[in-house]
Amino acid sequence: MTITIETVQHIAHLAKLQLSETEMFRLADEMEKIVGFADKLSELDIEGVKPTTHAVAVQNVLRDDELKPSYDREKILQNAPERDAACFLVPKVVE
Amino acid sequence: MTTYEIVVGIECHVELKTKTKLFCGCAAEFSDDPNRRVCPVCLALPGALPVVNRQAIEYAVKAALALHCEVQPFSRFDRKNYYYPDLPGAYQITQMFHPIAKGGYVDIETTKGSRRIRLNRIHVEADAGKLLHASGGIGGAGGTLADDNRASTPLIEIVSEPDLRSAEEARVYGEKLRTILEYAGVSDVKMEQGSMRCDANVSVRPKGDPVLGTRAEIKNVNSFKALERAVNYEADRQIDLIEDGGSVVQETRGWDDEKGVSISMRLKENAHDYRYFPEPDLPPILLDPERIKGIGLTLPEMPEDRKSRWIKELNLPACDSEQIASSRFSAELFDRTVALGADPKTAANWIMGEWTRCVRVKGIGMETEPVKAEHLAALLGQVSAGKINNKQAKEVFEEMFDTGEAPEQIIQRKGMVQVSDTGALDAIVQQVLADHPKSVEDYRNGRTQAIGFLVGQVMKASKGQANPGLANQLLAAALEAMK
User: Fold this and answer.
1) Is CB count within 10 Å lower at the N or C end of chain B?
2) Do A91 and B266 touch (CB under 8 A)?
3) Residue A78 Cα, gap to closest chain B Cα (Å)
């Protein structure tokens, strides 16, 4: 499978990444290798095999609806690049 | 000229009323103190492990059963990936491929008759946080503040088929959905507070054309009235566009109820690429038929069933039944009051009249049960026994509503009695006749409606305690005697 520059641009856009032209060419090359590696799987005959979504066969892991203490707000905000007294501060969102 | 048909499908997000969030033990209830109900799980910090709230699954199943859906024996969560500052993990946990329920329907009744609106599916998902606008902030240009108290609150999304054919149907569908979910007891279902949010997908097409037109999605609709207005506006806008030779663009539009217009929010430039994939941290949910049946048994008698029972067994008029059944709280109050021996039609009148008026005027949530069935039944008993008249009963009712006291106590405290003693009333009647010669004259000249005014005067002179029927009788007799 070939990874085109357009594909890299599309993925970079979705991931909100800005890439230089050199980076894009390098990534196209690297991504092609990664996808090519995974492509090996398509050589297998999986007719009638159900898709695996979880490696361990567990189900219905549920918890009771019981209150637990939340985190302290200061702790929650300590890694925020920018903040005000109570909230995360992010660049202006225009709707 | 082309006649157009409106086609509407509704996606309705409903907050489930669990105590805690969908994947962690943080409180799910509203708080206006930002970021106080937050932990690494609902912030989707690396390494934090979500665990599904059992109650949320049960509520979702209950809602699905109330809406006649097929609950799925196997359901699973997926990640929907997109960047937005109200989404701390840059992905939303939802159920794309294996929703908890499929199919189902809502029967609606409009001025045009009754119709069955099919549902496509119900899935469980996590809510986003809230964005507030700041004045200062990054670059001095004013930033956006993120409050994640609401992040990861459990929601169900109820997706209808594009079966609705008018703005009125859209409104009635929304109202009916609210009623059913309120009966099911799974949500507060308050549009104005955001615990129920309806987005409408609206398109138009020439009548008879089997192909659907390009749709626009209308958001920010905060009441059912607004939903009806927004759909009408959107249909008109699209028809005008087409008539002028243009075409409808697929987009999301925000409704501004004050201005009565919708504004384009964002064009779907290159169709969204959400890159859904199975949520690796959450194992699937398996539900066996016994479990589903058990949850179904916890549903109360639903509005349609109550309505037909009242019409059939209590002889209640259909429109009264419809109105009282439209809320679980009025329906239960009615059923209990009647079970205590009250006359059904009288009880219905009081619930549709005074009870509804007090709930509206005083802004008291009916879920707080401001008037107990025992008290309403006792009050109606006092009236039918002739101890107080209707006017006094209304005063007692309002007092009951405000204080929660029993009617007997209020009647005693206020010294209310109904004067049905002919001797006592006769004296008042004579006085009133002497004081209002003009009305007496009118009556004698054939304007018999003057008696209404005189009854009012007797009521006033007796401080509202006269038995109005008796007053009327005595006045009529006295006036006839004067002829």
Assistant:
1) N
2) no
3) 12
pLDDT over 70, % of chain B: 96
pLDDT, position B139: 45
Are residues B53 and A95, on separate chains, in Cβ contact within 8 Å?
no
Q: What is the ipTM, given to two decimal places?
A: 0.89
d(CA B50, CA B25): 10
pTM (2 d.p.): 0.84
Domains of chain B: 4-292 (no CATH), 303-414 (no CATH), 422-481 (1.10.10.410)
Chain A residue whose CA is closest to B145: A89
Neighbours of B363 (CB within 10 A): 7
Average pLDDT in the B249-273 region?
Answer: 83
CA end-to-end span of chain A, whole Å? 38
| Least Cα separation, residue B85 to chain A (angstroms) | 7
Set of chain B residues whose Cβ sits within 8 Å of the Cβ of A76: 35, 38-39, 43
Placement of tokens 């025992």 in the chain: B374
Q: Label each residue of B439-468 as H, E or C.
A: HHHHHHCCCCCHHHHHHHHHHHHCCCCECH
Q: Is residue A93 part of a domain?
A: no
Contact B302, B296 (CB under 8 A): no
For an interface test with B, the pick among A9, A53, A66 (most B C-beta atoms closer than 10 Å) comes out as: A53
The one-letter amino acid code at B360 reads R
Among B470, B466, B449, B446, smallest CA distance to B458 is for B466
What is the three-state SS of B362-394? HCCCHHHCCCCHHHHHHHHHHHHCCCCCHHHHH
| A36-A37-A43-A49 Cα dihedral, nearest 10 degrees | -120
Among residues B285, B28, B49, B68, which one has the least CA distance to residue B155?
B28
Structure tokens at B291: 């479990």
- Which of B:143-172 have CB within 8 Å of A? 143-148
- Domain assignment present for residue A59? The answer is no
Candidate from B20, B54, B254 with C-beta closest to A62: B54
Q: Which domain holds residue A3?
A: 1-45
| CATH code for position A33 | 1.10.20.60
Please check whether residue B67 is in contact with residue B106, taking contact to mean a CB–CB distance below 8 angstroms.
yes
Provide the residue type at B136 as one letter.
G
Q: Which pair of structure tokens corresponds to residue B199?
A: 């987005």
B346's tokens: 């009288």
- Nearest-CA distance from A55 to chain B in Å? 9
When divided into structural domains, chain A yields a total of 1
Residue of A nearest to B284 (CA): A59
Higher pLDDT, A14 or B420: A14
Q: Tell me the nearest-neighbour CA distance from A88 into chain B, angstroms.
A: 5
Whether residue A50 is contained in a domain is answered as no
Please identify every stretch of chain A with a pLDDT value under 50, giving residue numbers as ranges. none
